[in-house]
Specification:
Structural class: alpha/beta
Bound molecules: NADP nicotinamide-adenine-dinucleotide phosphate
Radius of gyration: 21 Å
Largest sheet: 7 strands, mixed
């Protein structure tokens, strides 16, 4: 019979890692399950500069989350790399079925995060990996010296556009409105960057090319006018990065946990879900501010309330 843990934490992004640190430090037996790399979405973030106390030069999402992981290890958290495909959460013992094994615990903290929403243009799947990407940190290097386009106007789109200027010949942000959603300080940096251009009030209708991404058809949503963007013949291709928001990783919980209309897990302020003994933390839950600090805070709150059950 497999070990029965006090708590299983699913997902090793900032929420899951913070929960692991708190639960481990409370001397619970903790299993942290992650299918990929630690850090979740911040593992694809080039620079973190708004996490309180973080003043390390050139801090990246990877370096910050790797220190969080070491901190969890310090408090005796057990870890496994496994992909969970089925959960049973309604009973007193919570069961997680993975590719490698089945894991059991008295309590569960779901911190599975979110993933990039598709841009929504024609041929997006065809050119994914052939010019279309959703991770500048991972793929910027492939676009060195090329014209690169970014879809979106939020923090991620503008921050990553700035990062992409280190590699690209020019970066053009295509935004569906005439004002950015990104924080003002990030906007100011982008407006001051001579390598960044903007196309306002426009959406990308289709990605075009022959085998690789060579053009875009964009449409002005105010005038209805369509414009064809084509690769410089000397380059032969362009890049397109999608940063139009995120979708929660909750498919596995449909019909089990209460989700909102966009698929985020509903919780109360103590991170309880609708099922006794099951908590959710971080970007996967319904909330208004999605930042590293709010994810970490959620994880801490969930773990504190789990720990209280053992007093
Ligand atoms: P976001 O804040 O939801 O912004 C998504 C952007 O994409 C918006 O500008 C939105 O336009 C646009 N958009 C949405 N659907 C679209 C569509 N179908 N076609 C074209 N454009 C579309 O998402 P995010 O930038 O990925 O950020 C997610 C969360 O992480 C946010 O809470 C953000 O604050 C946080 N974050 C923070 C930092 C930081 O603090 N440094 C960095 C990255 C992310 P509209 O503006 O018109 O709605």
């Amino acid at each position: 019979m497999e070990k029965l843990y006090d708590v299983i934490i699913l997902g090793a992004g900032p929420a899951g890692l913070a929960a692991a640190i708190y639960a481990g430090r409370s001397k619970l037996s903790v299993l942290l399950i992650e299918k990929g790399v630690d850090g979740g979405q911040i593992s694809a973030t080039d620079s973190i500069e708004n996490y309180p106390g973080q003043m390390i030069e050139d801090e990246t999402g990877v370096s910050l989350s790797s220190r969080m992981g070491l901190q969890a290890d310090k408090f005796g958290v057990e870890r496994v790399r496994d992909s969970i495909h089925k959960v049973e959460l309604e009973q007193d013992i919570k069961v997680f079925e993975g590719d490698k094994a089945v894991y059991r615990a008295r309590y569960a903290i779901i911190a599975t995060g979110a993933h990039p929403r598709p841009i929504g243009c024609e041929n997006e799947e065809t050119y994914r990996g052939q010019g279309i990407s959703y991770c500048a940190t991972c793929d910027a290097n492939f676009f060195t010296g090329l014209d690169v386009y970014v879809a979106g106007g939020g923090d991620a789109a503008v921050e990553e556009a700035i990062y992409l200027t280190r590699f690209a010949k020019k970066v053009t942000i295509i935004h569906r409105r005439d004002q950015l959603r990104a924080a003002k300080i990030i906007q100011e940096r982008a407006f001051a960057n001579p390598k960044i251009d903007f196309i306002w009030d426009s959406i990308i209708e289709s990605a075009n090319g022959k085998g690789i991404l060579q053009g875009l058809t964009i449409k002005n949503v105010k005038t209805g006018q369509r414009t064809e963007i084509e690769a410089d013949p000397a380059d032969g291709m362009i890049g397109l990065f999608g940063f139009v928001g995120n979708q929660p990783n909750t498919v596995m919980f449909q019909g089990i946990l209460e989700l909102d209309e966009r698929g985020y897990i509903k919780t109360d302020e103590e991170m309880h879900t609708n099922i006794e003994g099951v908590f959710a933390a971080g970007d996967v839950r319904q909330k208004s501010v999605r930042q590293v600090i709010t994810a970490a805070a959620d994880g801490a709150i969930a773990a504190v309330h789990v720990s209280e059950k053992f007093i």
